[in-house]
Design brief:
The chain has about 90 residues and is of the alpha+beta class. It has one domain (about 5-80): 3-Layer(aba) Sandwich (GIY-YIG endonuclease), CATH 3.40.1440.10. Helices cover about 40% and strands about 25% of the residues. The protein contains 4 helices and 3 strands; from the N terminus they run E-E-H-H-E-H-H. It has a 3-stranded antiparallel beta sheet with strand order 2-1-3, sandwiched between helices. It starts with 5 loop residues before the first strand and ends in a 7-residue tail after the last helix.
Length: about 90
């Protein structure tokens, strides 16, 4: 039995804001965001590009990481995106 992989991602929107999400199919999820069906936030703020992606074997770990990143300041998210912040 193959185990699903989970992905935590950050999207930069056209207004330079960030959206953090979780998925098991990153390509499909990106297409959903582009079509306006990905989330209310990205529908309003228009996704520009995926700027960060982490892979997890465990859904609970991915959920915790998504919640952690969502609580972070913009500066801390930018450090993560730029490789200046550890995966803690």
């Amino acid at each position: 039995m193959s185990q699903w992989k989970w992905y935590v991602y950050i999207i930069e929107c056209e207004d330079k804001s960030y959206y953090t999400g979780l998925t098991w199919k990153p390509d499909l999820r990106w297409l959903q965001h582009l079509s306006g069906l990905g989330s209310v936030y990205t529908h309003k703020h228009k996704p520009r590009r995926v700027v960060y992606l982490e892979e997890y074997e465990n859904l609970d770990q991915a959920r915790r990481r998504e919640a952690q990143i969502k609580r972070w300041s913009r500066v801390k998210k930018e450090k993560l995106i730029n490789g200046e912040w550890g995966k803690w």
